[in-house]
Amino acid sequence: MTSDSVTVFFSYSHKDEALRDELANHLSSLRNNGVIDAWHDRQILPGDEWDGAIKDSLNTAQIILLFISSDFISSRYCKDIEIKRAMNRHDAKDAVVIPVILRQCIWTDEPFSKLQALPKNGTPVISQTWHTPDEAFTDIANGIKKVANDIRQKIKTAKQAQLDQYEAVYTEAIKQAYPLSDNAQTRLKRLQDVLKLSDTDIAPIVTRLTAKYGEGKRKLEQYRSEVRECIEDEGEISGFSRSLLDTFRIQFGLTPEEAKAVEEEELHPYTAKQDAIAQYQKVRAQAKIPIDEKTRRRLNRLQRTLKLSDEDVQEIESADNSAEESQHVESEPLPTIGKASEATGSDEPKSPLNTHIARYRERVKEYLADRKLSPFEEIRLAQLRQELGLSEAEASAILVEEQAPFEQAKAIYRDALNRLIEAGHYPLGAETQQELRQLAQELQLTDSEREEIEQPILDAAFEDKLPSEKGIDYRRLRDLLKAQNFKDADQETYLRMLEAVGREDGNYFRPDDLRNFPCTDLKTIDRLWVKYSDGKFGFSVQKEIYVQCGAKLNGKYPGDKIFEEFCDRTGWRVNQQYIGLDRKTFSTSAPCGHLPSMQMSVAVCVGFGGVLVGGLVWGFLFSHRDL
Description:
This protein has 627 residues and is mainly α.
């Protein structure tokens, strides 16, 4: 018997022993090749308790063969013990029970009559239908072979899923610390016991990951130290530093991708600071000088949002003020003599109407400095129009004239965006987005105006294209969500995500599947969920809750306390118990972030090991920056 042989139990009447032996001979090929391991009561050794031996084998067999004949049905032991126990295990899906019809008899009223019998069509072995008994036994053997191979495949798939789960946890543990701490080793041993894996099962995983991450982690930390030294000295990676780091990378045996990931992590605080400074400078450059109290309050809010210190802002504004003063001196015109008429533009006095129109126009320009009229500004303009005695038509014409350049700029930008989408540039790539930003700057459009133009156009393009890096069709998911059929949409999400990583229904997601999940597809799925749940469901909603619970977006397990709080808030844990798919709430009455579940919470959030794996699975997904 090999480790993956399927155990087969023969339940028969001793009067049919000759036919049992004949079938055993036909199954010898399966037995010799390790497909099955057959047992019957004639294998009980002298001195063994026969009733206990039979029951032990009956309770552990994966296939139970019932040899049907009038003698078998009339046997009290077969009927009260073996048939009864066999059917109980069949109903519990613990074993496959196969009636083997040996001789003609009345068996259609028996409890096993509902089962598919062998040989085919339930034709007895002893029958004129078969040319020889060998023909019937061969048919039976082929049927048993098929069932045994199905069981072996299911066991293999389940075993691989358990190994994948163990490998995911072990990978994260060894990445965090090597050698493993006593606490980590204890938790891994508990997980091994939960998954029912032997030391032999996990040995290849431990050996491979230790070789990969044990020494690899030390080299990564050495490279990180060199990167930090370069950045601390220069605030960036200069050409000289690049040459040094490339040499170190080769010496440490790191891939370009590993080195780039370390550099991005270490550079992030610096690049984030520079991006914040650039954003503040851009907004301040649009402010009217001198800065009034209202504008200063708005800039202060922006400063807090961008997490800039007072020293950062003082340095920015000092540099800007110096540049403005320099520009003012250079552009100041030389004084003229004897040309007072040119300074005023005319010696003739203006008419009262022209004066009123000019005054109204100046006020409109002042209010349009931030490109939009607030409700209060509209009220003040209406009062000013009445004071100046202007008609509604005259005031409206002035407003249209002053807004015309803005509207023309918006029209140009809107047309350019539509043309890009029509030319097949959706979703917008990084280069296309940069070109659009440059165009917006040239047209002097604010970020809010850009968003106002882009939102309806990109929304329509999204609904039409439903972009996917893998060519996946998300129309069914969209239609299910639009119809508020969240249960089927949850299943559809799971299936399409499996498709995106090249796996099939019933498979588990591996760590790299979610860590490297296609960004375009992830955003498409999330956007559909957020849109049709009015912002209540979606991965980005779950991610926000995850962070609020104290988790870090580093793809690592956040710890039991944080993950349990996350599951409590999303409704995946009720009364300190993780719930299954049958207890999920597939409506907007559910807590925020309750969906999608991707079926993963059902698959992995069970027991000690499942909680840890579940936390890792969602940690991998939420670590996507584009989510």
